[in-house]
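Anyone up for a design puzzle?
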C-alpha cells in the first residue's frame, strides 16, 4: 500500500443527512417536487452535476448556477459553527497519515473541504484534498480518485480508498483501488457493491485493516 484516500461526507463528517435536508428544503422553496430516487442519485455527484439534477429531475425553477450558489451558501452557513465531524475521524486520519500519505477525494465543494481541514487541524496532515469539481466528473466516475492518486504520486492500484455510499464505492472500484467500506447507516450501500469491497464495522478499524493488507489476498 502506497497511499490512502478518504471520502469526506459520511466517512469523516456526518453530513449526508445535512446535504439531503438542505437540498430538499431548497427544492421545495423553489418549485421543485422531490422524488424517491433523488437522495441516492445525488450522492457523489459534483456540484455542477447535482445542481443540474435539481433543475432537470426535481424541477427547481432556477438555473443550475443559482441552485449551486444557494445550496452551498446554506451548507457553508451550517459549517460556520463547525462541521459535523464524526467521532474518532480525526484520530483515524492522523493514525493512517503516520504511516502512509493521505488524501481526501470528495464531492463536496472546495470551501467545505477547507472548512473541515481547518476546523480539525488536519491542513498539514492531508497534503492532497480534492473536490470532484476539480476532476471533471463526480462519483461514480473514477475521476476524483484517479486525480488524487496522481497528486500523491501513487499508482491507483496501490492506493486504498475509504467510502460509505454506493456511488462512492463504485467510483473507487472503477479507479482500481483497494476499497474499504464504512457503510452509511442513514443510506446503506447496495449489497451487491459491498460484496466487492472490504466492509468495516466502524472507521476505527481502518488502521489495523490497512496494516494487515497483503496484495493479492
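Challenge accepted. My sequence:
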Amino acid at each position: 500500500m502506497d497511499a490512502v484516500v478518504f471520502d469526506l461526507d459520511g466517512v469523516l463528517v456526518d453530513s449526508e443527512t445535512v446535504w439531503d435536508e438542505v437540498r430538499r428544503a431548497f427544492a421545495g422553496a423553489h418549485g421543485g417536487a422531490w422524488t424517491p430516487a433523488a437522495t441516492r442519485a445525488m450522492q457523489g455527484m459534483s456540484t455542477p452535476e447535482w445542481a443540474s439534477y435539481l433543475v432537470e429531475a426535481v424541477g427547481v425553477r432556477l438555473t443550475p448556477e443559482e441552485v449551486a450558489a444557494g445550496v452551498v451558501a446554506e451548507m457553508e452557513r451550517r459549517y460556520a459553527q463547525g462541521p459535523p465531524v464524526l467521532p474518532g475521524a480525526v484520530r483515524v486520519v492522523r493514525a493512517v497519515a503516520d504511516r502512509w500519505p493521505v488524501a481526501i477525494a470528495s464531492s463536496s465543494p472546495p470551501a467545505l473541504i477547507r472548512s473541515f481541514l481547518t476546523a480539525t487541524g488536519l491542513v498539514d496532515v492531508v497534503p492532497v484534498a480534492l473536490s470532484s469539481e476539480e476532476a471533471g466528473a463526480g462519483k461514480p466516475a473514477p475521476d476524483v480518485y484517479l486525480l488524487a492518486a496522481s497528486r500523491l504520486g501513487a499508482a491507483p492500484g496501490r492506493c486504498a480508498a475509504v467510502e460509505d455510499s454506493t456511488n462512492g464505492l463504485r467510483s473507487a472500484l472503477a479507479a482500481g483501488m483497494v476499497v474499504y467500506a464504512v457503510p452509511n447507516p442513514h443510506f446503506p450501500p447496495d449489497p451487491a457493491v459491498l460484496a466487492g469491497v472490504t466492509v468495516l464495522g466502524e472507521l476505527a478499524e481502518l488502521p489495523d485493516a490497512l496494516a494487515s493488507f497483503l496484495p493479492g489476498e
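A detail worth pointing out: The chain has two domains: 3-13+84-211, 16-79.
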